[in-house]
């Protein structure tokens, strides 16, 4: 089964967290499992906070990309459209909240699961959590919004990107 | 001037976001500027969300490490102790909230600024924002807590870290 992120057009597939075309990125992949979306990620040994524990910023990033991917999938579903049909949905994060319930041990794969909380126009709220070996260590909530014209490479009036 | 993170003992200096001993990390450095703490970070060209714009997970990570570093500095100051004196303070994140006000262009250095909101026992709340070329694009609030025994490499009863 193709992941949500596999359906992004090339210009939307550059994300450091989940873009299939980002050579240095994490390449997060998300699929449906019934009403929940699921990603799996195994952190690199250097993605730590303290020895033996996954970095909180990395965990927040996983929640973030998991949620924006889920938002895109939700938007297609709400319109009764197949993922990959045009125009493409691409969401970005307006607000991210993450609670670190307990330290997340480094080593085993992390499972990220999300569920639609609400969809209203261009705004989608996804609740998500991260578990390791069946134990939830992180909970998050993300408000995503359909990509604004100023960020959209398809949009002729978008801001010119700053030179990297 | 040494940065807050330069005072961490070696066992606390492995963080992917701010540890001076993490060979793959971002090496965030934070100093006081009056009552505010300041870090500067220039994202890599691949740390993007969409072409030309900084990745939201990276921005959240910067807020996160900036706040935990500030929390440690605040804790020393509250005790009238010099940074680097023992026992060392090291904070980890309990809760992270980030609002993305507008897209953050890739290219110029990002300035991260923080300010103490409250300190109560082992809990420190820091408000932070990120600006680029003088314009604030991200605001965050972080609840940090002094490192729990289960994560603390100094603590004989800490959990054994999982193998990476």
User: Kindly, what is the distance between the CA atoms of the first and last residues of chain A, rounded to a whole number of angstroms?
Assistant: 35 Å
Main sheet of chain A, how many strands, which sense, barrel? 6 strands, antiparallel
Class by helix and strand content of chain A? alpha+beta
Number of domain modules of chain A: 1
Number of helices of chain A: 1
CATH homolog superfamily of chain A:
Hotdog Thioesterase
The CATH class of chain A turns out to be: Alpha Beta
What average pLDDT do the residues of chain A reach? 94
Name the biggest interface. A-B, 57 and 57 residues
CATH architecture annotation name of chain A? Roll
Question: What fold name stands as the CATH topology of chain A?
Answer: Thiol Ester Dehydrase, Chain A
> How many runs of DSSP E, i.e. beta strands of chain A?
6
Strand order of the largest sheet of chain A: 1-2-4-5-6-3
Explain how this protein is built.
Chain A is an alpha+beta fold. The first copy, chain A, has one domain (4-151): Thiol Ester Dehydrase, Chain A. In chain A, 14% of the residues lie in helices and 32% in strands. Chain A is built from one helix and six strands, in the order ββαββββ. Chain A has one helix spanning 56-78, and strands at residues 30-33, 36-41, 91-100, 110-120, 123-132, 135-146. In chain A, strands 1-2-4-5-6-3 form a six-stranded antiparallel β-sheet, with helices on one face. In chain A, a hairpin with a 2-residue loop joins strand 1 (30-33) and strand 2. The relative contact order of chain A is 0.18. The model of chain A has no long low-confidence stretch (mean pLDDT 94). The interface between A and B is large, with 57 and 57 residues.
């Amino acid at each position: 089964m193709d992941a949500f992120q596999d359906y992004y057009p090339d210009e939307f597939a550059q994300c450091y967290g989940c873009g299939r075309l980002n050579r240095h990125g994490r390449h997060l992949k998300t699929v449906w499992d019934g009403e929940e979306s699921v990603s799996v990620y195994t952190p690199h040994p250097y993605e730590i906070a303290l020895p033996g524990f996954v970095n909180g910023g990395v965990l927040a990033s996983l929640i973030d990309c998991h949620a924006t991917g889920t938002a895109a999938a939700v938007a297609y579903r709400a319109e009764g459209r197949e993922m990959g049909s045009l125009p493409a949905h691409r969401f970005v994060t307006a607000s991210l909240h993450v609670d670190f319930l307990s330290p997340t041990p480094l080593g085993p794969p992390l499972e990220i699961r999300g569920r639609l909380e609400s969809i209203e126009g261009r705004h989608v709220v996804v609740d998500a959590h991260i578990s390791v070996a069946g134990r939830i260590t992180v909970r998050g909530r993300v408000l995503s919004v359909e990509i604004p014209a100023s960020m959209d490479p398809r949009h002729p009036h978008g801001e010119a990107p700053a030179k990297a």
